[in-house]
Sequence to fold (598 residues):
Amino acid sequence: MKGKKLFLIGTLLLGFIFASGTVYSAKRMIQIKGSDTIVNLVQILSEEFMAINPGKAIAVMGGGSGTGIAALINGTCDIANHSRPMKSKEKKLCEEKRVVPRTFIIAIDGLSVIVHKDNPLKEMIMEKIGAIYRGDITNWKEVGGPDMPISLYGRQSNSGTFVFFQEHVLGKQDYSPQMKRMNGNAQIVEGVIQDKAGIGYVGVGYVIDIKTRKVRNDLTVLNVAKNAESKAYSPMDKAAVDSGDYPVARPLFQSTNGKPKGNVALFIKFINSPEGQKIVEREGFFPIGKDIIADNFKNMK
Amino acid sequence: MKKKKFSDLKESVIKAFFFTNGILTVMILASIFALLLFTSIPAFREIDLKEFFTSHQWNPTSPVKEHYGILSMVASTFMVSLGAMIIAIPIGIGTASYLSDVAHWKVREIVKPIVEILAGIPSVVIGFLGIILFGPILAKIFGTSNGLNAINGSLLLAIMALPTIVSISEDSLSAVPKTYSDASLALGANRWQTLVRVKLPASLSGIIAAVMLGMGRAIGETMTVLMATGNAPAFPRGFLSSIRTMTATIAIELGEVPYYSTHYYALFAVGFVLFLITFIVNLLSDVILNKYQEREQ
Fold:
């Protein structure tokens, strides 16, 4: 009886050892982590990539640009998505941990400022948007809207969009403490749709209706002007984004540790291919031009 | 003789085994306490203790000047938890009284498990309810532009604390000896008087324990409040303003913070304060429990 039991335990243990062995020897998945702004885009890119390259597996996670870069530095992901350049602090950390980041631009985003659809405002100057988010302007009537206290929606500090907006629109000042720190772009959109006094900022991919591929009709995307003299442009206006007339356009990045190899290199090549860029455009972002693609390929070597 | 020796050995091994198990919990608690304490101490090399406890500004990533004051989030944590208790205590004790004294036993057998299933709903799901269901309703009721505020958080936390409060209160109400209520009824009291003046006071220790456990859950809950309260780090102006609790702050910022920076240590200090608060709540409930039990004896 006892012998039987021992035998049983022994086989179970052996089974475990073999099972764990096979798990370790299984092919590694590409791990991608970071910016919430491009998590959907990269997810779809990777699905299409896996469809034409059967047997290759990619896992995409959000969490914010800061989270992605931290994961790249800590070695827990293969590619970091980020919607802002690396900070000098992060570059220093890279050096300390012997991480040599290679950065690629994969798409262009017209950061969109959104308000509730009942809000009569259609356009605004950068400076005013900054003042609203700093908390200097607290009522819509001060910018020509209805008499309502402004309800601010933004991201959390681990978001690249949070940092980009702070640097380019707020003039490196603090956000108002009244701003609601939302978990992701989708939550900001959800909040502003329900909030008559709301204002929010999200990646342009999030104001496009998934089914019709047009601007969502349940919110208003503000046209933004550089200053009082210049004309206001829509973030959907490709020419204005390309020329820089739309003032809050920005590149979206992916970084790898060292030269991309194997499947990681294949995936980055796919994003830079015409098919990849077609998907970028379909998801509401803007494709990168020839020059950037050439730079990316040079950077891969 | 030999056999006796063997059973003695067996006895002492078993004894040692149970002693280790018992001491293990104490060790875990002590080491968490030590870890939190020692990881928070370095924070105060750069942060003024007075600023930490009395400033209402928390902004460690500011490009202008970093602020590390926890007053706003401590106030926010207490606000949502107390709000949740104000909602959950009357409903919870009411439900427990109904189940133990009014409901037919068949109804109780069905309803009590259902209430307990409520405890199994993941907090993310409840937070989601707060965003899409309670938020818009609260906004309409109070005439605010959105419903991401302290009341929303309180409501959701009340839902989460209810199963604990109902279940444990009902248990302790049912545990009141039948002789108590028999005596009360024989003296001419009606069922209402029996419930309110005899059974509830007799089971008070259990009910207080239930409430404290519910409160502990409310203070420590993270995901729900993170989703439903808007996370504005300003000092709360009232139940209709957006708030950010201590748990939410830790959850949001710990993912991104560079290791071994002041910000990192400061988050551990926040965790330490949170630990102290829940520790005191539990200690108080223990003291109250003991007091009532002594009186009963």
About this structure: The longest helix of chain B spans residues 2-40. Chain B has a mean pLDDT of 89. The first strand of chain B starts at residue 58 and ends at 59. Residues 2-45 of chain B form one domain.
